[in-house]
Structure formats: structure tokens, C-alpha cells
Design brief:
With 612 residues, the protein is α/β, with parallel strands linked by helices. 15% of the residues lie in helices and 22% in strands. The chain has a 23-stranded mixed beta sheet, with no helix packed on it. The chain has a 3-stranded parallel beta sheet with strand order 23-25-27. The longest helix has 13 residues. The N and C termini lie far apart (68 Å).
Length: 612
């Protein structure tokens, strides 16, 4: 069913009936939305106030109702009389438990119920009357308990409870929901799963599976995952509570033929004994996922070495996780070396967070320790092939001790890399030579908090560069394709050279009192720096101190000599209460800065004039 729905979803996108909205979200085309609302006008209704149900036109035989009313104190009788209602979506509903009891007793034909992010603290037993219910979403509420009558919802397929922090335990009757396909417990206070969960053999998605050590109290153990062969998306928490390798092996994750997404995590604990570290290594080694896996996330793993299956080759010389496309490691602070992820043939996105023990990233990250850039005999690895052949996005976050990134120009890697982010890597001293030679598709680079980095340059394909809080960065040069440059809090930056394609630039430093030296003044005979840096600059945005804003507003100032040759300039104070807007052609100069008082003045935003 899920696979068919995804096919329909992609088909609607391909036909432009669904259009991009935000990141991975899509929305219905406006014309199609109007048509759908017209055709379903007698059965579907969106109301901002419940009393609008009463005043709506046409026959009142509603099937679908979406309510946007966060202030209702009483439920109108006309609503509870809609006994033909199949879908009720009332997010942030102000209903009390008593009012819900009334709704659940009257609207017994509901198939879809969404009361997520409501202020409710309890769910009445009458929930069990909704025996036709297929979809129930109570995520983000303050409920502390679900009634045992939840087990009566024998047709329920989707149960969404994520973000219910006060919910500590699921009702035992939940194991009777044999049609359940999706159970999302992410971000809840649930401390364990009820025994018998393995009976839910139609589960495709299971988020927030939590382990308990005490089997005698009716908790579910890892072995119950064995029978859930339909799983496509699984997350397991508190893996440090696993008794050992044998319990992990009993889950048989490697035998799940449909598993595409897997998230494994431990609980945050700053202190672990050597025995605990060895045990967690053994546990993770037995949690070998199937070859069909496409996305893997490991969080707070505290073993000293990563599992061998993460990028190891099998006896048949094929990479075990050959279909893996996205990989994220977070909080793995005890591991000193990264696995040879460069061997993964289809990896598209890699993100490393909080790897505090990593000091050096070298060839073992690209092709493993058993081979080198000039050949090697590592089993199953063709040294003539690129490492990371399909990688498009690479991110390193919060690597406090990372000093060297070794990748020489003789090792071919990352030919498809488009996006690189280095965030809070304070000891990293330089970008690797191999990145400059082989990452020929790199278009976006983000570097923040690299306190030891002094130079960025020679990335011939780079189009966007964002540098933030790099206090010792001195030089940015030879980025011939760069069109966008953003600089924030890089006080030592003195040289910005050979950026002949630069179109847009942003400078941010709220203590900045004058322009940096790499912005040259306008001259009658352009210097090389003028030609290279600002000759083609179309847009300049500056966020700075009030003192610099004052200087920009003065015609005789050095700052005015710089900006007057740029097509569009926007200047803002820290709170954006003061601004300067300048356009070269047609000429306009607009500001609300009061030159006499040094504060904002009430100047119409559309006013224009010349610099003072």
C-alpha cells in the first residue's frame, strides 16, 4: 500500500499537480485545489469557527471536516449530529476530555481523527467506540495514558503519538491491533514496549522502539522484532540496555527484505566502563542491516570501533551495504577512526556530528587502511575507481579535536560532491589537497568556527561560499566561478582576490566601523583588485554598526566611494530598525538614518535622494 501511494505521489509531482512548497514538502496547485473544493463542496468543509458549520450552504452530509478554531468552549450540536463524518481534523483542538467523550460516542463512523498539538491531558475510554478508525494522530499532546480500549480499534492502521512527553507506557491492548502499519513513538516518555508487539506483523514503520532489561514485568524484548518482516522504517532506542550480542542477534535485522531506513541510538551518558564499551561493540556488530538499506543513522554509540559491516566487503568481494544512500553518525565520541565510507558505491549524503575523539581523517576514510592511492590489494576494492563515487553532500559538525584532513591529489574521490559543510571544527588547519584537485563538482562550501583555518582557495567550481566566525582566516582567493560570498565575523580576513565572477556579497559584523581593506575604493583607473573583486558585483548587503551606517550616508566618506559603483546596496543595523538602500541605476538613495542624532528618523520608505 505504501509503495503504491509513493508511486501516485511521484506521479502527481511529475505532472505538476503537486508543486514544491518548502524543503521536501509539496502543495496542491491552486487551480486544482479550487476545483477539488468545488467538486467536494457538499461533503468537505474547512471552517475557522465551529459555528460556521451551521451557516454553510447545501445539504449537511459532511464526510470530511477540517476545523481551525482554538478558542471554542462548547461543541455545537450541529457538529455531533454529523454522524456521516469520516474525517475530523482539529489540530490544537481546545476540547476537554468530557467533550471528546461526547464526540467519540456520536461520531462512531470516523475513519480519520487528527487532534494533534491539542491541550488534552487524557483520552476517554470511549475512544474504543471508533471501531472504523484507520488513522489516529494525537502527537504533541499532554496525555499521560492511553486507555486500554485503544485495543478495540481493530481497523487502525496508523497510530501517531510522537512528542507526547508525559506518556510513559502503552496500553497492553495495543498488541491486538493486527492491522497496524505505522506506530510512531518518537519523542515520547514511553520507557518500554508491551510484550507481544511481535504479533503486529503488518507494521511497516516503527519509530521509538525502546528496550527494557526486566523481562519479568511484561516488556517486549529484541527477539520480537524477528517476526516483523514487513518493516521498511525502524528506529531502536536505548540499545545500551541490550543484554548482549545474543539478544541483538535474535532481532535478525539482516533478514528484513524491505527495510530501507534504520536508526540505532543509545542514551546519553558521559561515563562508560571498558566492559560496557566492549559489549556495545558486540551488540552493534550483530545488528547487521540487510543489503537493501538506503538510510542509516547511528546516535550516541560509545564503542571504540564502528561495526565492520558499515563499509566492509564480504567474502564475495561486494560491498555489503551497496544500496545505502544516506548516512549520519552523531555523538560517537569514543571512536578515533572513521570507517572507509568511500567504498559505499551509492552513498549520496554523509553527515558526521560530535566525533570528539577523531583527530585525523586520512586515506582510511576514503578507501580503507588496506590500500593506498597508488594501488593496494584490499579485497573487493578496485583502486582505479573513485572513492565516494556518488557522494553529493558531506557535512562535519562539532569536531573539537579534528586537526588534519589528509587526502592527497593521487587519490581520486568525490567527483559528484556539490555541498560541503564544516561546522565548529576549531582545530582543522587546512582543506585537503585532494579536494582542490578532484571535487570538481563542488558548488557550495560552508565553513563556520574553523579557528585554525587561514586560507581558502583554488576551488575552481565553487559558486557559493559562506564563512562564519573564522577568526584567523586571512585569505580567500582564486575562486574563479564564485558568484556568492557571505562573510560574518572574520576579522583577520585581509585578502579577497581573483573572484572575477562575483555577483552577490554579504558582510556581517555588528561591531564593524569601517569597510574591510579587501573592498577597494573606486578610482579613475581601476586597479587589479577593483577589477577582480567588485567590477561585476551586483548586490552588496551589509549588517554593521551605527557608526558605519553614518559614514555610508556621507558623500565625502571612503565608504561612499566604495559603494557608489555597485548596482544595489542594502545596509542594516543589528535590529534592522535603521537601513540604507542604494541603487546605482536608476539612481535612488533611501535611508531612515538621522545624520544629526545618529538614530532612525521617520522618512518615507519610498523617498529617494543623494548621499549627504
Amino acid at each position: 500500500m505504501e509503495e503504491t501511494a509513493e508511486e501516485y505521489y511521484r506521479e502527481l509531482i511529475m505532472r505538476n499537480l503537486l508543486q514544491p512548497y518548502y524543503e521536501e514538502y509539496y502543495k496542491m496547485h491552486d487551480l486544482l485545489h479550487c476545483l477539488a473544493r468545488y467538486l467536494a463542496r457538499d461533503e468537505s468543509l474547512v471552517v475557522r469557527k465551529v459555528h460556521e458549520v451551521r451557516s454553510s450552504n447545501g445539504p449537511m452530509k459532511l464526510r470530511r471536516l477540517y476545523v481551525i478554531d482554538h478558542e471554542m468552549t462548547e461543541i455545537p450540536h450541529v457538529l455531533v449530529k454529523q454522524n456521516s463524518l469520516r474525517t475530523l481534523m482539529w489540530k490544537r483542538s481546545p476540547m476537554s476530555e468530557t467533550q471528546m467523550d461526547l464526540v467519540f460516542n456520536r461520531l462512531s463512523c470516523l475513519r480519520v481523527l487528527d487532534i494533534s498539538r491539542s491541550e488534552i491531558q487524557g483520552v476517554p475510554d470511549s475512544l474504543g467506540n471508533l471501531v472504523h478508525l484507520r488513522y489516529l494522530n494525537i502527537s504533541g499532546t499532554k496525555i499521560s495514558v492511553l486507555p486500554e480500549t485503544t485495543g478495540n480499534l481493530r481497523n487502525l492502521q496508523f497510530l501517531i503519538i510522537m512528542g507526547c512527553w508525559f506518556l510513559s507506557r502503552l496500553p497492553n491492548g495495543i498488541v491486538n491491533l493486527h492491522n497496524l502499519r505505522s506506530l510512531d513513538l518518537e519523542g515520547t516518555g514511553v520507557v518500554g514496549m508491551p510484550e507481544g508487539l511481535g504479533r503486529l506483523q503488518n507494521l511497516h514503520l516503527l519509530h521509538g522502539f525502546k528496550l527494557q532489561r526486566n523481562r519479568s514485568e511484561g516488556w517486549c524484548m529484541m527477539e520480537e522484532l524477528r517476526s516483523l518482516s514487513c518493516l521498511t522504517d525502524l528506529s531502536i532506542d536505548r540499545l545500551e540496555r541490550t543484554s548482549g550480542a545474543s539478544e541483538a542477534r535474535a532481532a535478525e535485522l539482516g533478514n528484513k527484505p524491505k527495510l530501507r531506513i534504520l536508526r540505532l541510538s543509545c542514551t546519553l551518558d558521559l561515563q562508560h566502563t571498558e566492559k560496557e564499551k566492549r559489549r556495545i561493540e558486540e551488540v552493534f556488530e550483530e545488528l547487521h542491516p540487510p543489503p537493501c538499506l538506503e538510510e542509516l543513522q547511528i546516535t550516541r554509540y560509545f564503542g571504540r570501533e564502528f561495526p565492520k559491516w558499515m563499509a566492509e566487503t564480504s567474502p564475495s568481494t561486494s560491498v555489503l551495504l551497496s544500496n545505502l544512500r544516506r548516512l549520519c553518525l552523531s555523538g560517537c565520541n569514543s571512536c578515533e577512526r572513521l570507517p572507509p565510507f568511500g567504498l559505499l558505491p551509492n552513498l549520496e549524503g554523509l553527515c558526521i556530528w560530535d566525533a570528539a575523539s577523531v583527530i585525523d581523517v586520512g586515506s582510511e576514510f576514503l578507501i580503507g587502511t588496506g590500500s593506498s592511492s597508488r594501488g593496494g590489494d584490499r579485497a573487493g576494492v578496485d583502486s582505479s575507481m573513485h572513492a565516494f563515487p556518488t557522494l553529493e553532500a558531506l557535512e562535519f559538525h562539532y569536531m573539537p579535536n579534528w586537526q588534519k584532513w589528509r587526502w592527497d591529489k593521487g587519490t581520486q574521490a568525490m567527483p559528484c560532491l556539490k555541498y560541503l559543510k564544516l561546522w565548529e571544527c576549531p582545530k582543522l588547519m587546512s582543506l585537503p589537497e585532494g579536494l582542490l584537485f578532484h571535487a570538481t563538482s563542488l558548488t557550495t562550501l560552508v565553513i563556520s568556527g574553523a579557528k585554525s583555518l587561514t586560507t581558502i582557495g583554488n576551488l575552481i567550481s565553487l559558486k557559493e561560499l559562506y564563512i562564519i566566525n573564522n577568526p584567523n582566516l586571512e585569505k580567500v582567493s582564486d575562486l574563479t566561478a564564485l558568484t556568492t560570498l557571505e562573510v560574518a565575523y572574520c576579522p583577520a580576513l585581509q585578502v579577497v582576490d581573483n573572484l572575477q565572477s562575483l555577483k552577490r556579497m554579504k558582510l556581517l559584523h555588528y561591531e564593524m566601523k569601517s569597510f574591510p581593506s579587501y573592498l577597494p575604493k573606486r578610482t579613475h583607473r581601476p586597479t587589479r583588485k577593483r577589477k577582480v573583486l567588485t567590477a561585476h558585483l551586483e548586490k552588496l548587503e551589509i549588517r554593521c554598526s551605527m557608526e558605519l551606517i553614518r559614514n555610508i550616508c556621507q558623500r565625502a566618506s571612503p565608504e561612499w566611494q566604495i559603494i557608489q559603483g555597485i548596482q544595489q546596496v542594502r545596509v542594516y543595523s543589528e535590529d534592522e530598525s535603521v537601513h540604507v538602500f542604494y541603487n546605482k541605476s536608476p539612481f535612488t538613495f533611501t535611508t531612515n538614518f538621522n545624520i544629526t542624532t545618529g538614530s532612525s528618523c521617520e522618512m518615507p520608505p519610498s523617498s529617494s535622494g543623494v548621499a549627504l
